[in-house]
Amino acid sequence: xxxxxxxxxxxxxxxxxxxxxxxxxxxxxxxxxxxxxxxxxxxxxxxxxxxxxxxxxxxxxxxxxxxxxxxxxxxxxxxxxxxxxxxxxxxxxxxxxxxxxxxxxxxxxxxxxxxxxxxxxxxxxxxxxxxxxxxxxxxxxxxxxxxxxxxxxxxxxxxxxxxxxxxxxxxxxxxxxxxxxxxxxxxxxxxxxxxxxxxxxxxxxxxxxxxxxxxxxxxxxxxxxxxxxxxxxxxxxxxxxxxxxxxxxxxxxxxxxxxxxxxxxxxxxxxxxxxxxxxxxxxxxxxxxxxxxxxx
Length: 296
What we know:
alpha/beta, 9 strands, Spore Coat Polysaccharide Biosynthesis Protein SpsA, Chain A, nine-stranded mixed β-sheet
């Protein structure tokens, strides 16, 4: 099945039966490029991962996102949700999802009360709670496609990248397809200077190694966004990888935490000055000993 057809099929299943119906068979699909190898086989042999999800006022879409993530996780994995103070019942809903995710094959599911400051601070708290070597970032309102984890882990196994940024299909709040490629729409590509001036790293499309996380923590004050900080830090050490495979449905709606509106010129200059200062000061990540982990 071609990529546009695959994305369209997922959207149709979601609209017809919701997230559970659309993704119920996600552990039985055949892995692309490996005839006869199922996602279940890959789950059994891959390294454990962590997923860091930051939420606020996200009750409307949180269930769909979590349901799209869980089939790709094993008992060795963990899902960390940090919930900032919200006007809806996001925290209660996240706790209910954690309580109903149990059993021998279930991942560790932790819900934290967020710091209530910025998006970056909320993600920092979730990332600090992660314990595995490979960490995925997730927003509260997107939908993971069924081969996201396996595709990212294969890419890590075949490169020394500290950070991987994958493409996404853009949908609206009702899952109507807007763009097949976020990269094409945003004109995303790597490069430190470009990434400082215009961020190409969207957090919900990022996965990173622990060595980058160790170097990135604590997040510097006054940085524009957590994803730009992680992307620029990896760019500084020339160890980034862009995957032109849409691996999520990136939902855009009026309540998105990240919008198309820009800050004023003075604020933008201040953010970039703080970002450059932090990049210069931060030390190089320490390479771990032993072989890289991933799916070969």
